[in-house]
Structure formats: C-alpha cells, structure tokens
Amino acid sequence: MSKSFIPSRSLLSSFSRSLKYDKPTQQCLRLRSINASCLHARAPAPKSFSTSSARTYKTVEEQRSRYKSGPFSYRAASSSSPPARLIFYFRYEKARMERLRIAEATKGVGRPKVGGPFELVDQEGRRFTDEDMRGRYALVYFGFSHCPDICPEELDKMAVMIDLVNGEGEGEGKKGEKKGLLPLFITCDPARDTPAVLKEYLKEFHAGIVGLTGSWDQVKDVCKKYRVYFSTPQGVKKGEDYLVDHSIYFYLMDPEGDFVEAIGRQHSPEQAAKIIGGHVGDWRGK
Amino acid sequence: MGFFSSTATSSPPPPKISSDGAPIAPDRTQRAKCWEGRDAYFRCLDKNGIIDSIGQKDKAEKECAGEARGFEGNCASSWVTYFKKRRVMEHQKAQTLEKLRTEGAQEMPGQVARGGPGQKP
C-alpha cells in the first residue's frame, strides 16, 4: 500500500471524510431516482482502488466505489491504529448504516419533507387522498380559480406539460386514465373554490387535471405539508372579492408519494416536460 | 370612447353561481376581456406619463376615464387593484435595474449563472 496511516491522522481523516461524505450521500440520494438506490446497486469497485490517491469524485460511480471501501481500510485500521480507533471506526460505520437506513426510509434526508397524507375532495365531489396519488407520478399545483393572471398562465403551461409527458409515454393517461402523469390542482381558496367551481374552471385547461378542495383546515393542512405559503383570509363573507397570495411551483411527486423536484415559472413547458419525462423514465427502468 | 354608454357600471356583471352555491371564477373569455381592458387602460396611462394610477388618481381619472371604465367594467375590483399595483411594482423594478445599469453596476454572476459559473461578460 502506498498510503500510510499515522494514527492521529487517520482519525482526523476519518472525521474529515465523514464530513465530506455527508454531501455525496445526499447527492446520491437525490440522484436516487436517476441511478438505482445507493444501498443496493453499488458499482463494483476497481481492483486497483486502494492505491489511488484521495481526490474529489467526478462521477457518482466513482463516489460509490470509494464509498464501498469506507473511509479507510480494515487493514490500515488494524495495523496502525490502537483498538480505540477501531471501536470508533465501527461506531462510525454503524452510524453511517443507520443514516442510510433512515435515508432509505424517507428518501428526503437533508431536504425538507414535502408532501404527506391529506384528505380532500375532487371536482366531482369524490373523496381524494394522498393514497390516490400512489403508483404514478403526480404534478401538483396550488392556486385558486379567481386568480388574475399567474395561475391561468401556469395552468396553460401545465396542460402542455401533461400532453408532452403523457403523449410520449405510449399514449397513455390522455383522458385521466390511471396511468401516466397525474396532474393535480389544489386550491388555496376553499371558500370560493367548491368542487363545482373547480370543475367549471379546470375543464378549460385540461380534461385530465384533478381539482382538489376541502375545508379551510384541510387545505391549510395540505399547504403546510407541501410548504406552500398562502394567505387566504379565514371566514370571508359570501360574495366578498379578494385575492390569495400563494407560492407558485409545480411539485413533482414520485409514485411512492415522495417529493422529487419543484418546477418553477422559469421553466418552459417543454423544459418541464423534459424534466418530468426523465424522472418517469428512470422509474420505469427500475 | 364609446366603449360603454354613460350609464355603464364600472364593475363586471355579478358572477354566475355554481350548482353548489359559490361564484364561478371568470372563464377564459372573461379573463381575455379583462386583460384587454387592462392593456388599453395602461396604454392610456403610458401616453399620459402616469405610472401609479392609485397615487395619481385624479389625473388618471381625468385622462383615462373611458379606458378606466373598460378596465373596471371587465375585471373584478380585486383584479383591478392587483394590476394597478403590479404596474407600479414592475415599473420600480425596471427603474432599479436601469439605475444600476447607468451607474455602471456590473452584472452579477448570479445573472449569468445559467450559462455556467465563472463566466465573464
């Protein structure tokens, strides 16, 4: 071995590595849907690996292969470190595995959890929960029907995205079938956006969009879970004219209901469709 | 402007009520009409050098009364206020950028970040 470990230095390096690893781990998790899971699908490590010098990783494969051999090798640890170091190493390994296990369970480690259980009604008055989102990608947009200009623009964009994504994928999901991308419109204005109002409103954009509403508390709850800021006044009188200030993002959720990516106003429908299509394709390839 | 007769009200007709008793939002046609009214009104404000039609209410009313009726007659009052405020905000934003440019401010890398980090203008 060309690399020698001085005990104190090895401890130091394992510390710095553990710091260094935090980020690649997250990156790897973020890339999880692009590449298969970090835990199970490691690339085979190159044989000559242990002799290569430490450097930053250029690819995920490289990072993974380095990951496999750990911060330092058993041989180096046992030959040049006192038992205390070894105990530290095992503790470190245990913690790392625990971190990975948690990351695997929630997938969103290092990122705020977006999404979660909710219960609302769709534009036909049927109950709709997060369970109904499972099994396909969902594109979630928050808005309100009395929105002056931004929501209609964004919904027109959404309609193009839906056709681009679902049109490409074997022509499925065009008429709100249980396949392809599921577009959801969740109102931030439950007082005015009743199921019938949403039905009237959304049919002008795309037949496939599912419009969701509920009680003020239910909407507040789902907005909170999706980290959507909104300012709907509570307890407005009938016929009162007001606007709702809200965040403008499309949330892409994977078939397991986990947040994948936010698509903002800067993305054209074509760019957005490309992003979504990429994720959908990765999932199919799993 | 003969857009509306002198008896025209300056608010759109009340919205239709949905089957479950809530006012239906303006549809695509109504929105387009509202935006047209807004654009015509803003063109008039531009011609008369008015940015803030709320702050310069008297002048705006004098110069663009006809257009104002076309605007307010086709948009809900909350929309009218929103568009008027947004006009001011967008003007301020453009001015700030212009001011920075004339002061010789350098475009920050953030502006060109999409082209890649470390890019030089």
Q: Which SSEs are present, and which pair or pack?
A:
The complex is a heterodimer of chains A (286) and B (121).
Chain A (H helix, E strand, L loop, with lengths): L6 H24 L29 H10 L4 H7 L2 H24 L12 E3 L5 E3 L8 E6 L6 H19 L13 E6 L7 H8 L7 E3 L3 H10 L24 E4 L5 E5 L5 H16 L2
Chain B lengths: L27 H20 L9 H7 L1 H8 L4 H26 L6 H4 L9
Notable characteristics:
heterodimer; A: 286 residues; alpha/beta; Glutaredoxin; two-stranded antiparallel ribbon; 8 helices; B: 121 residues; mainly alpha; disordered N terminus; Thioredoxin-like_sf (chain A); disulfide bond (chain A); copper (chain A)
Description:
- The complex is a heterodimer of chains A (286) and B (121).
- By secondary structure, chain A is of the alpha/beta class.
- Chain A has helices at 7-30, 60-69, 74-80, 83-106, 150-168, 195-202, 216-225, 269-284; strands at 119-121, 127-129, 138-143, 182-187, 210-212, 250-253, 259-263.
- Chain A is globular and about 75 Å long.
- The two termini of chain A are 38 Å apart.
- In chain A, 33% of the residues are buried.
- The model of chain A is unreliable at 1-7, 10-55, 63-78, 102-106 and 168-177 (pLDDT under 50).
- The termini of chain B are far apart.
- Chain B is an all-alpha fold and 121 residues long.
- Chain B is built from five helices and no strands.
- Chain B has a domain at 28-101.
- The interface between A and B is medium-sized, with 20 and 21 residues.
**How far is the first residue's CA from the last residue's CA of chain A?**
38 Å
The CATH top-level class label of the largest domain in chain A: Alpha Beta
**In the CATH hierarchy, what is the superfamily of the largest domain in chain A?**
Glutaredoxin
Q: From N to C, what is the helix and strand string of chain B?
A: HHHHH
Strand residues, percent of chain B:
under 5%
How many strands appear in the DSSP assignment of chain B? 0
Q: What fraction of residues of chain A sit in β-strands?
A: 5-15%
> Can you tell me the overall shape of chain B?
globular
Mean pLDDT score of chain A: 70
The proportion of residues forming helix of chain B, as a percent range, comes to: 40-55%
Mean pLDDT over the residues of chain B: 80
Oligomer designation: heterodimer
Radius of gyration of chain A: 24 Å
Q: Residue ranges of chain A: pLDDT <50 for 5 or more in a row?
A: 1-7, 10-55, 63-78, 102-106, 168-177
SSE succession of chain A: HHHHEEEHEHEHEEH
Work out the helix count of chain A: 8
Q: What fraction, in percent, of the residue positions of chain A are helical?
A: 40-55%
The main sheet of chain B comes to: none
